[in-house]
Amino acid sequence: MIYGEMAGQHNESPVLEVRNLAVDYGRLRVLEGVFLELKDRDFLGIIGPNGGGKTTLLKAVLGLLPITRGEVYVYGKTPHANRHLVGYVPQQSEFDSLFPVTVAEVVLTGCLPPGLQPFHRYSREDRERADHLMEQMGIYELRRRQIGTLSGGEFQKMLLARALAVSPRMLILDEPTASVDVNARNQIYYLLKKLNQQITIILVTHDLMAIASHVRSMACLNRKMHYHGEPELNEAVIGELYGCPVDLIAHGIPHRTLREHGNGED
Predict the structure, then answer these.
(1) Residue 174, beta-bridge partner list
(2) pLDDT tens digit string along 28-63?
(3) Is residue 220 part of a domain?
(4) Cβ-Cβ contacts under 8 Å for 211 (sequence gap 6 or more)
């Protein structure tokens, strides 16, 4: 098992419900009228332009910021009540890679209980869990390395191990492949595919090919939700989402990105 003792029985009731969500930053409306519902073990990909509210939606689901209007339920309760059921991989840019800390120390922070815990001492079980996760992520040999020496892919695997240390039932990732090479990106998607056999995953990305190839459902977000459904894009959705024509180019094996178009037909 790649992630420790996670996830219970498969549940057909929604594990995430977002109802008429609105979020403001000061006088700026960032999200407006967002509805979203996920079932157990879904793999949702969220795409949209920069500044479209993707990270804001994730933080609302995590209970990390106040909402202006609407409701968010995670496993039937408020985000704060069930925060321990969710693992979070933020954007790499949110971490100071020059901070003097090792890979193992970062992963262990995922074992911290909620709230401020000065002088917390990790148990033997915590350390065994962290070692196991680093082995599964392929970074165990890097456990004593300073995080500033890691490649982009190694850094993301460390953050993924840290998020999994809480044994979550839902995993939320914000641009996990934005600064990694192709090989590391493929490894991360392979790990997520294995994880998705047991847990629900929400992935924010600009990688449209990843959306077409890996996720089970897709949400298109630009302040409002423009689409939520099967991971198959069309020109109308893309044009509305980005406000301009976008060409999707696939290399190698064809991807589920655009339907075939007839002359003058939908």
Answers:
(1) 204
(2) 999 999 999 999 999 999 999 999 999 999 999 999
(3) yes
(4) 45, 47, 205, 218, 231, 233, 257
